[in-house]
Amino acid sequence: MAGKLQQELKKRHRYPSSEQEALLSLARTADQIGIRAERLMREHGLTPPQYNVLRILRGEGKPLPICEVASRMVQVVPGITGLADRLEAAGLVRRERSSQDRRVVFVGITPEGVSVLASLDAPLPALEKKLLAGLTQAEQRQLIELLEKVRDHLERSVPLT
Q1: Which of residues 160 and 126 earns the better pLDDT score?
Q2: Is 98 within the bounds of a domain?
Q3: Tell me: the pLDDT tens digits for 29-52?
Q4: Which DSSP symbol is given to 79?
Q5: Least packed by Cβ within 10 Å: which of 73, 106, 108, 123?
Q6: Domain span including residue 138
Q7: Considering Cα of 37, then 38, then 44, then 50, what sign does the dihedral take?
Q8: CB burial class (10 A; 0-12, 13-18, 19+) of residue 54?
Q9: Cβ neighbours of residue 40 closer than 8 Å, sequence gap 6 or more
Q10: What is the rounded distance in angstroms from the CA atom of residue 23 to the CA atom of residue 80?
């Protein structure tokens, strides 16, 4: 009997390993969740990486070096400078050079950035609740623990290279 993912993807043969099926299932699920979150953020004029930058800056409460923002991102963003450029052009962040080291650029959220982010403060948690409504609180906790276990293993044993 074919598994659910196999049926969804109309794959004729079983997956050669549980690792492959698990990774494809994780990718498919992340894509489905990401599409829904991205649609909501676009309604508010943001992309997920832009939202992430603003969330980091609002949470910190003060400007941060751009490299520090990059290190806190949920997803790796290769073009953090370009992302900051677009946010600055939209008036959502401001940049300033460090007075001690001109090579260091700080990024801070503007009042307009705070306002745009605040517009998502109710709808995003509501969406998150809907996205995981099929799992109990205990199952959500179990999922978190399993994903943390995978990330811990990756950090210890599978370098990015």
Answers
A1: 126
A2: yes
A3: 999 999 999 999 999 999 999 999
A4: T
A5: 123
A6: 122-155
A7: positive
A8: buried
A9: 120, 123, 124, 127
A10: 27
